[in-house]
Write a structure and sequence with these properties.
Blueprint: H1 2-16, H2 18-25, E1 44-48, H3 53-64, E2 68-73, H4 76-86, E3 89-93, H5 99-108, E4 114-117, H6 132-163, E5 168-173, H7 186-205, E6 210-217, H8 223-232, H9 237-246, H10 256-267, E7 278-281
Parallel strand pairs: 1-2, 1-4, 2-3, 4-5, 5-6, 6-7
Helix pairs in contact: 1-2, 3-10, 5-6, 6-7
This protein binds 1,4-dihydronicotinamide adenine dinucleotide (NAI).
Length: 288
């Protein structure tokens, strides 16, 4: 019945005006389209760990979207090299584990609309083989730092809502390891699970003042993965790489740009109704 009515409507709209009929039958044209989506013109962003891997790809993508981006990293020469290549970006020294460093960086900014908490480190081990020092290191860099950096930049992010047209936005780079258990990743899973929890808690704490979301990537081809292969699988890198590919149903590692695109979306006005969300980008890993 519904199908007949739909076909009749399409038939008569085609008779009335063939070009309108085209619009009706083209789902992507059913709502007015902007010339370019996910623009961030005039917005100011800061990406921690922005000098490498997913952070670097995110810096590039946000600049491409029209934003000005602070590349916040402990690797200042790499951040400066990237900034000079891009133009609408500036390097800033920021050690995410240091309250003093965060305060000094925040004092240099007069506007912030988008904070990407990306800096992070990995660790391989079960609960039995994880030392207290390693556990604390992961807690420090991957968890405590997200708390410190978010807290340090919160006043500026709240101002974005008051002084500019859109709410401030935090995008945390979590991981599938915050959603499912992964063998030999005890401390890493713990740390990314905490990032997931902080994302949800902050989203419900400030629903009208800030948007807070997280991306949960599967294994992505970055220096982080190369360092892991070098450190733990020096003699069997290619076999291990093949295993990493095989656990993701699409059969390959992710590309940093594929995570960066999702971060750009979450930072954009198109995601205005999205807060407290965990966006998985993992080649099907957690669906399998
Ligand atoms: P990466 O090792 O390529 O880059 C990390 C960046 O963070 C580097 O530029 C480094 O200098 C910086 N950094 C490290 N400690 C810092 C500190 N204390 N303060 C400021 N900057 C610091 O890493 P990748 O792969 O791009 O990872 C980025 C984020 O994505 C991390 O949080 C990681 O846990 C997460 N992730 C990575 C995945 C992967 O397969 N590569 C998968 C899922 C999540």
């Amino acid at each position: 019945m519904l199908t007949c009515a739909l076909l009749a409507a399409l038939y008569f709209s085609f008779r009335k005006n063939p070009s309108e009929a085209h619009v009706m039958t083209n789902p992507s044209a059913s709502t007015p389209q902007k010339t370019e989506a996910f623009r961030l013109d005039g917005r100011h962003a800061l990406v921690t760990g922005g000098a490498s891997g997913i952070g670097e790809a995110t810096v590039r993508e946000l600049v491409r979207a029209g934003a000005f981006v602070w590349i916040a990293d402990i690797n200042v020469p790499a951040a400066e090299a990237l900034a000079s290549e891009l133009g609408s970006a500036k390097a800033i020294h920021l050690d995410v584990t240091s309250p003093d460093s965060i305060a000094a960086a925040a004092a240099k900014l007069d506007r912030l609309d988008i904070l990407v908490n990306n800096a992070g480190i990995g660790h391989v081990g079960s609960i039995e083989t994880t030392d207290i020092e390693d556990f604390d290191r992961l807690l420090n860099v991957n968890v405590r730092a997200v708390f410190l950096v978010s807290k340090g930049f919160l006043p500026l992010l709240f101002q974005a809502a008051e002084q500019h047209e859109a709410l401030g936005s935090i995008v945390n780079v979590a991981s599938v390891s915050g959603l499912v258990g992964i063998k030999q990743r005890f401390a890493y899973c713990m740390s990314k699970g905490a990032v997931v929890s902080m994302t949800r808690q902050m989203a419900v704490e400030y629903p009208t003042k800030l948007r807070v979301n997280a991306v949960c990537p599967g294994t992505v081809q970055t220096p982080f993965v190369e360092a892991y292969l070098e450190k733990y699988h020096k003699d069997c890198k290619e076999e291990t790489r093949a295993d990493l590919r095989a656990r993701q149903p699409v059969g390959r590692l992710g590309r940093p740009e594929e995570v960066a695109s999702l971060i750009r979306y979450l930072a954009s006005d198109e995601a205005a109704f999205t807060t407290g969300s965990l966006m998985v980008v993992d080649g099907g890993w957690t669906a399998a």
